[in-house]
Structure formats: structure tokens, C-alpha cells
Amino acid sequence: METSWFSLRAVSVRKRVAPAPTKADRFALFTVKDGVITNKEILPRPDLDPVNFPVWLENLGVSHLAGSLNAAARGLLKRKGIEVVAATPQQTAEQVVQDFLK
Questions:
Q1: How many domains does the chain have?
Q2: Do the Cβ atoms of 54 and 36 come closer than 8 Å?
Q3: Contacts of 81 (CB under 8 A, 6+ apart)
Q4: Whether 18 contacts 68, CB under 8 Å
Q5: What is the CATH number of the domain that holds 84?
Q6: Residue in 76, 56, 80, 22 with CA at minimum distance from that of residue 8
């Protein structure tokens, strides 16, 4: 099964996961197939409001978003079928994906 992962990443904090989409200057999009990362793409953060951000993720085929988000943000993402995966600023985007796949 192929899964698209979308994990927050901020260069300003030494390539670690940003605590929220507004804190990330770019994003890492991972494709996972059979439990293995098969592709990684870096995208700049779009200039979108909080309501349109989940639509953008949905259009990319994102199924998971890593970060620490408030209840309202999680609700918007859940309505688009996007699961929020807990992550800490100490983790790299790759670590979050690998930990979730274990």
C-alpha cells in the first residue's frame, strides 16, 4: 500500500520538525510503500489561510501530518481524512515517519 506522508520541517531549527505549519518555512513530503520511504520531496510553505491549508494537503494526497496542532486545526485536518501524528521539535521529519512505521 502506498501512503503519502507530509511532515513539517523548518530549516530555521536545524532541519527539525516545526511545532506548527506556521513555523515551518518548507515541508517534506514522503511517499511510503510497504513500510519503506520510497520518495521525499521538499516544498515551500504556501501562503494559505488555516481553512485552505487542509485543502492544499488533500490535493497533494497527504494522509498524515506531523506536528503539534491545536484541536481546531486537528479537526479541520480530520475532516479531510488527514491524521495528525505527534512529533517533537527534537525529531527530524524522517525520524517521525520511521517511528510511526515501527
A1: 1
A2: no
A3: 58, 63
A4: no
A5: 3.30.420.130
A6: 22
Q: What is the pTM of this model?
A: 0.79
**What is the residue type of 36?**
V
Those residues whose C-beta lies under 8 Å from the C-beta of residue 13, and which sit 6 or more positions away, are 89
**What pLDDT sits at residue 29?**
86
- For residue 96, the number of C-alpha atoms closer than 13 Å in the C-beta half-sphere is 28
Helix residue ranges, H only, the chain = 53-60, 71-79, 93-101
Q: How far apart are CA 19 and CA 87, in angstroms?
A: 8
Residue 8 domain boundaries = 2-101
pLDDT digits (tens, 9 = 90+) for 53-90: 889 888 888 888 887 788 988 898 899 998 888 888 78
Cell of 45: 510553505
What is the C-alpha separation between 83 and 85, in angstroms, rounded?
6
